[in-house]
């Protein structure tokens, strides 16, 4: 992490080092590119992806805000789409691979470190994930008929989850960052793919204009009513559950396989690592709504609520 600035590819140097810069949450700095903040490695990935990724009409793209339940959504959509290929739970790929290995991130995995992957051998429909804000998404995603499933989460739990996550990833010698300091950064929009609210608002607008293109989901709703949301995803991705599947309990089976309790207890997710180096277990913490009550003071809650109210005013969106 410490040397990421030193390994910026020559072609990106002029652009990246002219951008506004702030201290990051983990070790690397954040740079403001097209209105959103990114660590340098992700940023190179975003720019490479903007230049080279060609979306196909049949692609499905999961766009999420960081710490909104991306890991869960990846597991669910992968299982849903591939349920004919992997009908038997005992042999399912999720039992031996992290959801992040099954559904790659565009900017953190496929296009990271200046790689330009050859995606021609992928079977369609192809499934990708990203935290790239819609305004920076590769143009072919906007222009093609590909479908987007968008996931976000209430800002207070998003913030707490992000704070805990970054604390785990921070090199020990850098010490911890206080909750106050981190909250201040989050509220100023200085967080990975932040400002959080702008990320969500961009998509809300698009999903209301083009409901066939974007399905807008909230983690909190998915936790409250997983079956309704899973059916909704299946309908949107044009792979609805048949009557036979409904009667045989397929919806519940997928939800059970992808549940926090099941995934977080698998050996692969307890002890495995991603190729990018992170331990799989850092993506599983509590998987609940409302943990913010255990961490935030009244003043912090007021501050976050005030910003959320200001940012979302007039949008019709409630987070
Ligand atoms: P908490 O830190 O609040 O527990 P992301 O996948 O976008 O990084 O988000 C991580 C958050 O999703 C964490 O929230 C994590 O515990 C939760 N999560 C991971 N897998 C989950 C699952 N299968 N079901 C519900 N929540 C899950």
Question: Would you kindly provide a written description of the structure presented here, covering whatever features stand out?
Answer:
With 319 residues, the chain is of the alpha/beta class. The chain is built from 16 helices and 7 strands. The chain has helices spanning 10-16, 40-52, 70-81, 99-102, 106-110, 139-143, 155-169, 179-187, 196-209, 219-224, 226-236, 243-247, 250-257, 260-265, 267-271, 298-312; strands at residues 21-22, 30-33, 36-39, 60-64, 127-130, 147-152, 214-218. It has a 4-stranded parallel sheet, sandwiched between helices. The chain has a 3-stranded antiparallel sheet with strand order 1-2-3. A hairpin with a 7-residue loop joins strand 1 and strand 2. The longest helix has 15 residues, at 155-169. The relative contact order is 0.15. The model has no long low-confidence stretch (mean pLDDT 94). Adenosine-3'-5'-diphosphate (A3P) binds at residues 64, 66-72, 157, 161, 164, 258-260, 263, 283-287, 291. Adenosine-3'-5'-diphosphate binds next to helix 3, helix 7 and helix 14.
Helical stretch tally: 16
- Shape, principal axes of CA atoms: globular
Q: Which parts are unreliable, with pLDDT below 50 for 5 consecutive residues or more?
A: none
User: What ligands does this structure carry?
Assistant: adenosine-3'-5'-diphosphate
Rg for CA atoms: 19 Å
Structural class: alpha/beta
- Overall residue-averaged pLDDT value: 94
Major beta sheet, specifics? 4 strands, parallel
Helix and strand sequence: HEEEHEHHHEHEHHHEHHHHHHH
- Beta strand %: 5-15%
Distance between the termini: 33 Å
């Amino acid at each position: 992490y410490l040397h990421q600035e030193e390994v910026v590819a020559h072609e990106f140097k002029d652009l990246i080092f002219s951008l506004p810069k702030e201290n990051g949450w983990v070790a690397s700095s954040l740079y403001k590119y097209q209105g959103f903040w990114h660590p340098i490695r992700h940023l190179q990935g975003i720019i490479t992806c903007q230049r080279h990724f060609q979306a196909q009409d049949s692609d499905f793209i999961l766009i999420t805000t960081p710490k909104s339940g991306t890991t869960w959504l990846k597991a669910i959509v992968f299982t849903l789409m591939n349920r004919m290929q992997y009908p038997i739970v005992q042999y399912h790929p999720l039992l031996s691979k992290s959801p992040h290995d099954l559904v790659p991130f565009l900017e953190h995995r496929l296009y990271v470190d200046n790689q330009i992957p050859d995606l021609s051998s992928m079977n369609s429909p192809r499934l990708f994930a990203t935290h790239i804000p819609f305004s920076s998404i590769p143009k072919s995603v906007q222009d093609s008929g590909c479908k987007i499933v968008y996931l976000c989460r209430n800002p207070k739990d998003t913030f707490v989850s992000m704070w805990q996550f970054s604390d785990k990833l921070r090199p020990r010698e850098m010490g911890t960052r206080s909750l106050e300091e981190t909250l201040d950064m989050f509220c100023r929009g200085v967080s990975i793919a932040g400002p959080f609210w702008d990320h969500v608002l961009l998509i809300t607008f698009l999903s209301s204009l083009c409901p066939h293109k974007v399905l807008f989901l909230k983690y909190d709703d998915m936790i409250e009513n997983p079956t309704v949301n899973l059916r909704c995803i299946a309908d949107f991705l044009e792979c609805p559950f048949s009557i036979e599947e409904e009667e045989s309990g397929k919806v519940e089976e997928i939800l059970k396989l992808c549940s926090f309790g099941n995934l977080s207890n698998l050996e692969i997710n307890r002890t495995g690592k991603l190729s990018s180096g992170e331990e799989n277990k850092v993506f599983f913490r509590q998987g609940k709504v409302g943990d913010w009550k255990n961490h935030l003071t009244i003043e912090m809650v007021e501050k976050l609520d005030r910003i959320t109210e200001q940012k979302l005013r007039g949008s019709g969106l409630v987070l």
